[in-house]
Amino acid sequence: MAGFVEVDGVRLHYLERGAGPVVVLLHGNAATAQDFAAAGLVDRRARHCRVIAFDRPGFGCSARPRACFWTVDHQARLLLQAMAALDAASAIVLGHSWGTLVAMAMAAHDPRAVRGLVLVSGYYYPALRLDAPLQAPPAIPLLGDLLRRLPAWFSRRLTQVPAVALMKSGYAGLVLPVVLLAGKGDTLADPQAHSVRLHGELLQSELRLVEGGHMVQHFAQEELADAVRTIMEHRSGLRFPPPLRSDMAPA
Question: What is the mean pLDDT of residues 12-39?
Answer without folding.
Answer: 95
